[in-house]
Amino acid sequence: MIVTRAPFRASFAGGGTDLPAHFQKHGGATLSVGLGRHMFITGRKMFDPSTTLLKYSRIESVVSLEEIEHPIFREALRHFGLFGLDLGVSSDIPAGSGLGSSSTFTVALVKLLSEFLEENFEAHEVAKVASSLEVDILKEPIGYQDQYASAFGGLNLFTYSAENGVRHESVNISTDQREELAESLWLLKLPGGSRSASLALTQSRAFVDSSVAATDALIELGSLAVEAKSRIEREGVQVLGEVLRESWELKKKSNPPGLVDEHEDLIRQGMRSGATAAKLLGAGGGGFLLFMVEPDNAGRFSKSLSNFKLVKPGLDFVGATTIYREEKD
Question: How far apart are CA 48 and CA 261, in angstroms?
Fold first, then answer.
């Protein structure tokens, strides 16, 4: 039995610049952090190796790869040449959250399957394979930030280019700064069900392709992410409030009217109640709002928004990892 976990992520700046259609022309960069909320994958070898059992929101019991309906399970097993496994999924956060849930699942699964082959992939290799499965093989209209943010954990700058692919730089902050950042972050679950990130990203991409102003806003978002790294290292994590506010204004400009700004009233309520900054996480249409709140204002903030599901997620500086392994003959 092997159990792996991978953290969800919150993006501060640069979302959208990690899509190949953008960064292959203009370059891109994202600033994000791993959250202390996780996707877990459990796996063991089946007694009957001719069968694979998959347990997620439904159950699949199959005798061949081609029978598998879940595309990521199917292509990940194909990539690693594995079958005859009992695999199950558990998550701290529901799907369609805006926290990169699909890619977090893929990262945890890639880490698990690499462990079965005793290859013990490190973060960069996990992210690279997860990205290839989703973007290259399954042709999902998504980018690369979610896979890399989940695989690495921590506070990071990722840069994207046609020449160099994806490059990773950790943002150097002290233990006290980590605790300060963790204490300030809140998630608010938006009303309604989950939404399709692929659909929202497709709509956003079409808008960017037809709008010079939207493209310019995306380019500014990438520059903001790069500049934020050096500012945080000089001035501390408190500058993230300013970064988040600017990021939200640029995100609204880079997306179709109505796709991301329908929650503006809720953001204003949070700001009036003590938050210093906020933005919608993900491509729009549902999920979570991210708020930054000074600890002294936490009581007022949580009371004002008590009708909503509020979560203090904490942070993860480990990334994708194996948390349990039991060998049986």
Answer: 52
Please answer whether residues 200 and 18 qualify as being in contact, where contact means their C-beta atoms are separated by less than 8 angstroms: no
For 72-107, letters b (16+ CB in 10 Å) and e give bbbbbbeebebbebbbebebbbebbbbbbbbbbbbb
Helix (H) or strand (E) holding 123, with range, is helix 123-131
The pTM (predicted TM-score) of the whole model is: 0.93
208-264 per-position pLDDT tens digit: 666 788 899 999 999 999 999 999 999 999 999 999 999 999 988 887 776 666 788
DSSP state of 117: T
Q: What is the pLDDT of residues 72-106, one digit of tens each?
A: 999 999 999 999 999 999 999 987 777 889 999 99
Q: Can you list the domains of the chain with their CATH numbers?
A: 2-172+316-325 (3.30.230.10), 175-311 (3.30.70.890)
C-alpha span between 287 and 95 (Å, rounded): 9
- pLDDT tens for 102-153 read 999 999 999 999 999 999 899 999 999 999 999 999 999 999 999 999 999 9
Q: In terms of Cα–Cα distance, which of 152, 145, 185 is closest to 171? A: 152
8 A C-beta contact, residue 37 and residue 7 = yes
Query: CA nearest 11: which of 131, 157, 141?
Result: 157
b/e 199-237 (16+ beta carbons within 10 angstroms → b): ebbebbbebbeebeebbebbbbbbbbbbbbbebbeeeeb
Strand intervals (E) in 77-219: 85-91, 155-161, 165-170, 185-189
- Identify the CA nearest to 17 among candidates 164, 217, 211: 217
Token output for 238:
């408190």
Q: Which of 210, 193, 188 is nearest to 285 (CA)?
A: 193
